């Protein structure tokens, strides 16, 4: 038996790669996962303190995969979403009750999501972990594809799944093109304590420098994503706690109460990326390696998890999981959702990140109008819950085995 021969090799064990390995746990596929960072440490940058809003659709995928019970312990439900613009009239409100769902989504710290996924990874019988290891090279042959690791070992598989993030090594090795858009914005994240409970409210607030989001978390805290123009972040990051909270309060207002404490602050440059050809001979790109979004609508990982659910469904029972037709069918099923979410997120950033007065009035009117139109609100809620597109088996509660 050749121990270096796999059905599927997943490159990158972040949220997308780890989720795919878990989704395939009951398949007959022999899987290898190569991850650059050790699973045992907190050094994994994808698994930091930022809050991740999981849509209702993502919750259902994790429920069917059997990992939701490990995630929900640390999650906070979103009962209401409040969308508004600073300094203007106009607001749209969504509620779980109106949508007849238990919650519009759930917020979990990336760190806890990482712990839950990593714990599961270590229990999978059909998985070999190469960790910490990096892939440095990839070569495609007719029937197989080969990767070389940093220890010079070569692994062979029928299919490589590149889940290695926005700066995908696999994409660079193959010299593949991607559409990139640098927003010249930076997201500052931090956990914030307020003087009143959040009652499950998530706030999306647009300001001229960029959007701000406040997501409900456990222990009466909220998770902040504050978008600022590139260059403005260093001053905010270095402010003492009290001065930072004062600035934040000034920009956000008092709708969520008084901000009284701030946890560790981090920053992320915001760059949109969409791979031009996410399917190659015996290679498929998923998650951030296929599309990396502005966090304005909290859709990045939710979109990636739908890649995972559809890909797992296609390869679960496949004789040759890297067959070109199978991969084309996968991409045909994913293309529309990927394009729509990438485009609508990009348009949202452009629409709200400017101070043209006429546009400001139109935005305010649009938010007010939306709030009075139940059909439009339902459409928006379905989109943010990840239920607007055809649902893969895992999202419908249908196990793959
Ligand atoms: C501020 C902020 C807020 C966000 N909020 C939300 C939200 O509310 N909801 C939501 O759905 N999404 C959100 N996102 C997006 C979400 O964080 C990403 O979509 C998600 O982390 C992408 O996961 P991934 O596994 O595809 O990629 P990554 O997290 O980038 O993981 C890639 C993995 O590949 C490994 N790797 C890289 N190169 C190699 C190599 N050569 N060999 C081996 N391993 C390699 C890395 O170590 C890493 O573990 C947010 C993002 C930001 C920045």
The overall strand count is 20
Structural class: alpha+beta
Radius of gyration computed on alpha carbons: 21 Å
CATH homologous superfamily classification: FAD/NAD(P)-binding domain
Distance between the termini: 26 Å
Task: Name the helicity range.
Answer: 25-40%
Beta-strand level of the residues, as a percent range?
Answer: 25-35%
CATH class: Alpha Beta
The coarse overall form would be globular
**Low-pLDDT regions:** none
Count of individual helical segments = 12
What compounds are bound to the protein? flavin-adenine dinucleotide
In the residues, how many domains can be counted?
1
Domain FAD-binding: 7-344
Organism: Methylophaga marina
Pathway: Cofactor biosynthesis; ubiquinone biosynthesis
InterPro entries: FAD-bd (IPR002938), FAD/NAD-bd_sf (IPR036188), Ubi_Hdrlase_CS (IPR018168), UbiH (IPR011295), UbiH/COQ6 (IPR010971), UbiH/COQ6_monooxygenase (IPR051205)
How is this structure best described in words?
The chain is globular. Helix 1 packs parallel to helix 9 and helix 9 packs antiparallel against helix 10. The model has no long low-confidence stretch (mean pLDDT 91). It is an alpha+beta fold. It has a single domain, classed as 3-Layer(bba) Sandwich (FAD/NAD(P)-binding domain), CATH 3.50.50.60. Bound molecules: flavin-adenine dinucleotide. The site of flavin-adenine dinucleotide has 35 residues, from helix 1, strand 3, strand 12 and helix 9.
């Amino acid at each position: 038996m050749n121990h270096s021969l796999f059905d599927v090799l997943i490159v990158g064990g972040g949220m997308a790669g780890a989720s795919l390995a878990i989704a395939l746990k009951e398949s007959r596929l022999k899987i290898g996962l190569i991850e650059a960072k050790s699973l045992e440490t907190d050094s994994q940058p994808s698994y930091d303190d930022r809050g991740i809003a999981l849509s209702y659709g993502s919750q259902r995928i994790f429920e069917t995969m059997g990992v939701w019970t490990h995630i929900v312990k640390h999650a906070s439900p979103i009962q209401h979403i409040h969308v508004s613009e600073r300094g203007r009239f106009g607001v749209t409100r969504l509620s779980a009750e109106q949508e007849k769902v238990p919650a519009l989504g759930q917020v979990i710290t990336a760190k806890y999501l990482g712990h839950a996924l990593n714990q599961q990874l270590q229990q999978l019988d059909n998985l070999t972990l190469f960790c910490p290891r990096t892939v440095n090279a990839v070569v495609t042959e007719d029937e197989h594809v080969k990767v070389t690791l940093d220890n010079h070992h070569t692994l062979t598989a029928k299919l490589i799944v590149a889940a290695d993030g926005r700066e995908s090594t696999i994409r660079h090795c193959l010299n593949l093109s991607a559409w990139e858009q640098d927003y010249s914005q930076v997201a500052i994240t931090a956990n914030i304590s307020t003087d009143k409970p959040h009652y499950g409210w998530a706030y999306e607030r647009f300001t001229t420098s960029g959007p701000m989001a406040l997501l409900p978390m456990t222990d009466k805290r909220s998770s902040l994503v504050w978008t600022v123009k590139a260059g403005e972040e260093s001053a905010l990051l270095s402010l003492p706690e009290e001065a930072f909270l004062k600035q934040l309060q000034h920009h956000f207002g008092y709708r969520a109460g008084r901000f009284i404490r701030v946890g560790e602050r981090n920053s992320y440059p915001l760059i949109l990326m969409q791979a031009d050809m996410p399917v190659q001979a015996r290679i498929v790109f998923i998650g951030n390696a296929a599309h990396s979004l502005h966090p304005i609508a909290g859709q990045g990982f939710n979109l990636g998890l739908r890649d995972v659910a559809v890909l797992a469904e296609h390869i679960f029972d496949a004789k040759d999981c890297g067959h070109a037709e199978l991969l084309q069918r996968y991409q045909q099923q994913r293309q529309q959702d990927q394009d729509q979410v990438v485009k609508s997120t990009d348009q949202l950033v452009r629409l709200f990140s400017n101070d043209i007065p006429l546009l400001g009035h139109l935005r305010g009117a649009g938010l007010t109008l939306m709030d009075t139109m139940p059909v439009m609100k339902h459409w928006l809620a379905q989109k943010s819950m990840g239920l607007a597109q055809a649902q893969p088996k895992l999202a419908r509660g249908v196990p793959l085995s």
